[in-house]
């Protein structure tokens, strides 16, 4: 009776599968929250009270009764009526003309990103991202053995000149860059939005160096200012942009309905891959989102979300101005996050640990979102899920700890 | 304005992603069904009228109102209460003692199988399956570049002596076999069940050659005869069996709730991988299944399914005896399928095409389920989703076509 030596059975890819660097922090927060009231700026999620659960209760009850095949498989790429609605949604909300054939419904935007890895990324390939970028995209693409290089951002998002410079350098070195990944609006973790005037430039650079662009639009519908930002996809005349869509940040992350949209050459492969991977997206969830889109409810939920989160954002910014004078931080016009820069000698990982331990405030170090060492002193603060009446107090405590550590 | 040459961007793995060989047939059936009443033996799914949709309507309405965080993320490996219930379920229905820590909730059994590929399979590795085996498992593991070898079956399922012989041969050739994949009960596509007295032997062989066993239990709960079949997992003393569980075949394939259970060394890696792959299984679906398990409804749904499908199976077998005298076929004690062997000179693919075209009867060639050429004349018939009052007529028409082709 010998137990097998499991490590011997693991694939070489398994070595590339790393634990999420923020998982430990998340566990600590969960443990602490059991005994103390924690003010949390940790999550990257919608406020549960903004999600229209009463409406979902009603709709899902109707749908289970009405749709005979709701408990059975749908096509692997999604219910055709939903794909039609998504095409209409992209037209209405994103100015993108596309066809249902170009759409694959996925388990949130995350699965679309993983699918892109499976279809496009080989070991040794290089991928460019904003620096910092979404930690889970970095993690999941590392499963495919790629190298990831971050491009610096400023207040207006990704810096096109830096992108050009990097691509030029890599091209000279003979490195194969396949794509640029950008969360163009309300980026996670920075909260920054790529300025409209830069967007055309980014597309031109992609064309110049013949790379694809993966545009993650997760936060596109949480725009707090009356500014114009067009999706890269809507401006793309060459078919370089693969669009990753998600209803998660407005309708709820738990539903797990997102999609991949792009050129047929890639989408057809995605459909082929997806069938045996998981058969289809959860069918009752597909019908629920279909009904929400059909009933034109999305816009109302979105407006309520924007109103709620704009208020929370303002509370957070005001509190930062009040309690953290002189600190460097981002001012989001969209999304769910603010970054703050601690003094250079303070490590964000340590800071957030003490903050939780001593001050009952939860935040996530932004460090693992960086592709290099430049984010050691940066902390990500979420405002969407934070409790309105505790934001001021939470930031005050951050100020307290900062004072404690710097004096 | 040049469109990119997309094929240049595809990964080397993308070449391993093949279209499902039964996809074309499925499309043809869908098209035909629009204009004609097709008698279908094609699907591999529960009867929509067995799925308790009224109950789901009620439960999901309650859950959306009651569970505040139902629209938000759950842990990547699933809601902890659901994992507890699944551990209890495995004890009650499968005689397996395990812990919630050893469980990862997945998007149906399919995702568990894909996850096993990601964690364990390297290009060039060899995987053994029953011959024939589930076509989607073959397809998705091919994404990982593995070689698949099928082990012959007889009426009692996989033949242990053949397994031993194959492993001995491969071992002498220096080939690395990582695992045996078995759908031990009510196998898809054969309908066969691995005889209880063979199960111990299969485990001994796995131990002898130091390979793992992936036991796909999708059809375990659809057992039509009062025979004893223990899961390999429950008999495994060494920790060689990775268990793939699914509620799909009883509660509905559309919910997409399955799980992976196994040794911590592998399950921990699965948890790490799964987070960034898709964040979490759909949360309302997790709570729905949780309620079904908590309310002890599973057993009732299962009993109703068994009663319905047993009747359909008997109708199918009787019709085969009546209209296809002398034909070789499998007699399932579990699952959803019967295989029939056409005369050697008739190709199943062609036969099923004419059958649909001329006789309005849909069936799936079993050929792509085989790992070699031996299944060219084999057709898979599903009885679970077939309409009770049309089974006899459908098989009669198969008999008609056979007569037409052989006289």
Protein described:
Chains A, B: It comes from Thermosphaera chiliense. Two copies of one chain form a homodimer. With 407 residues, chain A is α/β, with parallel strands linked by helices. Chain A folds into two domains: 8-51 and 300-406, Alpha-Beta Complex (Aspartate Aminotransferase, domain 1); 68-296, Type I PLP-dependent aspartate aminotransferase-like (Major domain) (Aspartate Aminotransferase, domain 2, 3-Layer(aba) Sandwich). Chain A is 44% helix and 14% strand. Chain A contains 14 helices and 14 strands. Chain A has helices at 23-35, 53-66, 80-94, 108-120, 135-142, 160-172, 196-208, 232-235, 248-251, 264-278, 283-294, 298-323, 348-359, 391-406, and strands spanning 39-40, 103-106, 126-131, 147-154, 157-158, 177-182, 212-216, 241-246, 258-261, 328-329, 337-341, 361-362, 364-365, 378-382. Chain A has an eight-stranded mixed sheet, with helices on both faces. In chain A, strands 10-11-14-13 form a four-stranded antiparallel sheet, with helices on one face. A two-stranded parallel ribbon of chain A has the order 1-12. The first copy, chain A, is globular. Chain A starts with 22 loop residues before the first helix and ends with a helix. The model of chain A has no long low-confidence stretch (mean pLDDT 96). At the A-B interface, helix 2, helix 4, helix 5, helix 10 and helix 11 of A face helix 1, helix 3, helix 5, helix 6 and helix 11 of B.
């Amino acid at each position: 009776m010998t137990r097998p030596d499991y490590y011997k059975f693991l694939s070489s890819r398994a070595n590339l599968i790393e634990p999420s660097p923020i998982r430990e922090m998340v566990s600590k927060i969960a443990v602490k929250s059991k005994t103390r009231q924690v003010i949390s700026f940790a999550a990257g999620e919608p406020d549960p009270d903004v999600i229209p659960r009463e409406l979902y209760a009603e709709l899902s009850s109707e749908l289970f009764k009405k749709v005979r095949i709701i408990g059975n498989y749908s096509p692997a790429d999604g219910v055709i009526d939903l794909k039609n609605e998504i095409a209409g949604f992209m037209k209405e909300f994103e100015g993108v003309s596309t066809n249902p054939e170009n759409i694959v419904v996925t388990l949130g935007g995350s699965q679309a990103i993983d699918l892109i890895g499976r279809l496009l990324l080989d070991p040794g390939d290089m991928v460019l991202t904003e620096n910092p970028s979404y930690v889970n995209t970095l993690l999941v693409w590392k499963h495919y053995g790629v190298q990831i290089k971050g491009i610096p951002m400023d207040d207006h998002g990704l810096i096109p000149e830096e992108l050009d410079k990097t691509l030029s350098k890599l091209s000279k070195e003979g490195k194969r860059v396949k794509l640029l990944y950008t969360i163009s609006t309300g980026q996670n973790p920075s909260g920054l939005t790529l300025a409209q005037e830069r967007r055309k430039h980014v597309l031109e650079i992609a064309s110049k160096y013949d790379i694809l662009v993966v545009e993650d639009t997760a936060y596109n519908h949480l725009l707090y200012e009356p500014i114009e930002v067009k999706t890269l996809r809507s401006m793309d005349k060459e078919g370089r942009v693969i669009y990753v869509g998600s209803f998660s940040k407005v309708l709820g992350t738990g539903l797990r309905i997102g999609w991949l949209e792009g050129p047929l050459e890639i989408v057809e492969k995605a459909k082929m891959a997806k069938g045996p991977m998981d058969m289809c997206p959860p069918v009752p969830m597909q019908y629920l989102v279909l009904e929400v889109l059909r009933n034109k409810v999305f816009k109302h939920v979105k407006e309520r979300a924007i109103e709620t989160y704009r208020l929370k954002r303002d509370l957070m910014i005001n509190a930062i101005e009040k309690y953290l004078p002189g600190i460097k931080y981002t001012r989001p016009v969209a999304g769910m996050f603010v970054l703050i820069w601690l003094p250079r000698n303070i490590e964000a990982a340590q800071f957030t640990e003490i903050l939780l331990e001593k001050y009952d405030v939860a935040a996530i170090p932004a460090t693992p979102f960086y592709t290099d060492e430049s984010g050691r002193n940066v902390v990500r603060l979420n405002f969407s899920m934070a409790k309105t009446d505790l934001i001021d107090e939470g930031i005050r405590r951050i100020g307290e700890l900062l004072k404690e550590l710097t004096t």
